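Sharing a chain and its predicted structure for anyone who wants a worked example. Both blocks are below, sequence first, tokens second.
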Amino acid sequence: MNSLEMQRYEMPAKLFRIRLVMWLLLVSLHLITSFHRVAFNVVADLLTAEFTLTGAGLGNLAAAYTYMYVLMQIPGGMLVDRLGPRRIALLTGLAMASGSIVIALAPSSAWVFIGRLLIGFGGSVVLINIFKFQVSWFKVTEFATLSGFAVLISSSGALLAATPLALSVSLVGWRGSFLTVGVITVFISFIGWLLIRNNPGELKLQEKKAYYASPGALPAESSSAPALRDVLSLFLNRGILLPFIYNLGTFGGFFAFSSTWGVSYMVHVYGFSVADAASVMLVTHFGYMIGAPSAGLLADRLKNLKIPALILAICCLLFWLTPTVWPGGLLPGKLMYILAFILGFGGAGSILSFPMARKACPPGYTGSVTAVVNLGAFVGLAILQPLIGYVLDLGWEGLIVEGARIYPLQAYRLAFLVTLAFTFVSFSAALIYREKKQV
């Protein structure tokens, strides 16, 4: 291709700005999703005092988000394929905004539960919607990179739900904080409705024609949405099933440690304070935030998804393997910080599961395929969290401190061995996966 032909395929500046603004609006909604996923932890004690909640009652409120998130994956993916990114952005944004406002005005815990359900309903398909948009507006060689940066930016929502939210609560209260977030979400939703377009064909720009006719452009998405039986058949598609399995141990193991069992492990085994143990979890999340764009950039640079998927799965294996084979099982405390970063970095490999599955997906199925693969992460989490607890109970020696069970080192080593097995299955899925050229 000569220089004149190359110029033809350069991204026009105006078109670049337009699609970047639309993409950032969608990512902003995912940032709000990440915020709500973590924000409940900050206000849990306040809600308990306000509504006189039991531990079970508080847990039920916390789980409402996850219930709806998992329940909506398959139907949500189908909705994305049917309605397109513009309508879905408005619907999901308004659902999350309504949930946040309902919580802010809740006269009872039942209304908090409804608010959490609404937030889970809206947040469940936000990431799916981003990938649907990327398929129509970005090239194959940009997909993994954009996916990684979407996760990097949106992950900052979890950071906003920590100290900034705590500061906001101290200034305007938990009700005022949720009301503010709800109003901001409404604003972003309507700006998205005004600016977002489902595909370049809806944008009247002359310069778009040459660029999207260039080599490597993604095929146009079909306007017809798949039926439910067609979506269920995706589980039998090898190119989609393997990324689904890849998510089980990579993201499932990362999240089980960083959000459920990691603090207890560091406190029980290493004698860390809760604050110091939480700092280890923070390092894990930073590893995830850095790993996501790094994985995408490497995949697009190599034009290969399998190699980076294997590298990041090995990072996860390294984390779970080290405590199980280390003499005595007790690692130096500083080494745990390094391993925590490695686990987060490796857990970010789950972002590669989406472009892996995308290559096996026919036009029009992007939302549904993304939903199927995303479900793998939560299936892994749903299996690992109680399974780790069950194994820990088997190794419990009867020690209780302030009503909480204290598990010994050997119990954790056995539990980590189980998670290691899950991660090895994920590594095997990446090893079996065959790179397929995009048509």
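Comments welcome. The two ends are 21 Å apart (CA to CA).
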